Amino acid sequence: MSSAPRSDEPGRDRDAEGRARNARPRDGLGRPLPYGAEGVERQPEGVTRTPDETIAQAQALLDAGRPFHAHEVFEDAWKSGPDDERDLWKGLAQLAVGLTHAARGNATGGARLLLRGAAAVDAARREERPYGIAVDGLLGWARELAERVEKGGSPVDAASCAPRLRGDAAPGGEGSV
């Protein structure tokens, strides 16, 4: 009979219930750093926010060049929100992860996730601007960035390439949160 790993077991990052948790510090793009290294503060998991709070917090993280962390905010919304909105939030999370991969230099993965996220957001919307999100501009941003990273192959700067969730969605566009 095997028992669940203990939270104090050496070499394992587990919570009190024995679930795997990675306690390693992470950089601004979510990459694990060595234990003891200085990382950036991680987003708390399982936070329930209003849609406006979700968009505002995700935009602030995108603007700071932290799309991996923005993805975690969107992930909370898709996991805690109404069923009929989950695909919208999941698509937004995929866009943030696509930008993360593009910033890490993973052109293929970045482009695929940007296009997958754009398709999900487009399919999920039931109105032109759900929660004020500039969907058409966001879709254009995702497609243009996917094409750019596929052609260029080199990492992009996450902060300068971050979309505007409200407004025209182009980096640095008017009307952002």
Largest sheet: none
Let me know the number of strands: 0
Rounded mean pLDDT score = 86
Please report which band the strand proportion falls in: under 5%, 5-15%, 15-25%, 25-35%, 35-45% or over 45%: under 5%
Poorly predicted parts: 1-9, 173-177
Overall outline: globular
SSE sequence, one letter per element = HHHHHH
User: What is the share of helical residues?
Assistant: 40-55%
Radius of gyration: 17 Å
How far apart lie the N and C ends?
Answer: 54 Å
Structural class category: mainly alpha
Oligomeric nature of the chains: single chain
Which short descriptors sum up this protein?
disordered N terminus
Task: Give a quick precis of the structure.
The protein is mainly α. The protein has helices at 51-63, 67-80, 86-104, 107-124, 135-152, 158-161.
What does this 3D model show about the protein?
Helix content is 49%, strand content 0%. By secondary structure, it is an all-alpha fold. Helix 1 (51-63) runs antiparallel to helix 2, helix 2 (67-80) packs antiparallel against helix 3 (86-104) and helix 3 (86-104) packs antiparallel against helix 4. It is globular, with a radius of gyration of 17 Å. The termini are far apart.
Draw up the topology in text.
Blueprint: H1 51-63, H2 67-80, H3 86-104, H4 107-124, H5 135-152, H6 158-161
Helix pairs in contact: 1-2, 2-3, 3-4, 3-5, 4-5
